[in-house]
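Homework help board

Subject: predicted structure for assignment chain

Our instructor gave us this sequence and asked us to write out the predicted structure in token form, then describe one feature. I got the tokens but I'm not sure how to describe them. Can anyone check?
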Amino acid sequence: LARTVNNCDLHTGTLCSQLNLAGAKLAGSELAMSNFMRADLSGADLSEADLHSANFRFADLRRATLRDAVMYDIDLEQADLRDADLRGANLVDADLEDADFRGADLRGADLRGARLWGAQLNGARLDGAKTMAFVASDHGFAPQFLAIDASKVLVDLGLLSLPQTSNCRPA
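My token output:
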């Protein structure tokens, strides 16, 4: 479904970087593989839109409605999604690095495989969101300060009775 907003024809593969689309009504639009880098989509309605594989790096999506949007493999690196409604959105394999989700509603969203490195999730609603646990090791492939104590996570989840202090198992 193509739409014209601010003299820009919006459709699959559209190049609309840095465009002002604040408050735009784009519900149900077909915008897959489009480029909205640094665009202002604050308060826009993108519910049920097809946005898969689109580029929204540095985009302003504050208070935007993205409910049930198809957003798999989307690039939202450093995007501002504060107070956005992403309920039921498909964010599988999305790049969400350094994105700001403070106060966003992600209930029921599918975040499996999403890269959330540095994302701000303070105050975000994640009830019922589909996620995948990420467990890392400090055995030479990542800086020590970035490592996660995997055994503590497993103890907290009740899957391990005591923390494992090494990767050696008793004989």
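Reply (TA_rk): Your tokens look well-formed. For the description, you could write something like this. The chain has one helix and two strands. That's the kind of observation they're looking for.
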